[in-house]
Amino acid sequence: MLNLHALSVSRRRRSVLSGIDLQVGAGEVVGLIGPNGAGKSTLMEAALGLIPFSGRSSLAALPESRRARQAAYLPQSREIAWPVSVEDLIALGRIPWPGGGRSPRDLAAIDAAITRMELQDYRKRTALRLSGGEQTRALIARALAQETPLLIADEPIAGLDPAQQLACLRLFRDLAAEGRGVLVSLHDLGLAARFCSRLVLLVEGRIIADGPPDQVLSDDLMRRAFGIALHRIDTPEGPAILPL
Amino acid sequence: MRPLFPLLIALVAMLFMASLLIGPAGIGALTGLKALILGGEGPLPIVMREIRLPRAILGVAVGAGLGLTGAALQGYLRNPLAEPGLIGVSGMAALGAVIAIQTGLALTAALMLPFAALTGAAVGVGLLMLLAGPRGGSVTLILAGVAISALAGAGTALVLNLSPNPYAANEIVFWLMGSLADRSMVHVMLALPLMVVGAVLIARSARALDALTLGEAAAAALGVSPGRLRIWLVTGVALIVGPATAVAGAVGFVGLVVPHVLRPLVGARPSVLLPASALGGAVLLLAADIAVRLILPERDLKLGVLTAIVGAPLFLHLIWKTRSGGRV
Question: What keywords are assigned to this protein (chain A) (predicted)?
Answer without folding.
Answer: ATP-binding, Nucleotide-binding
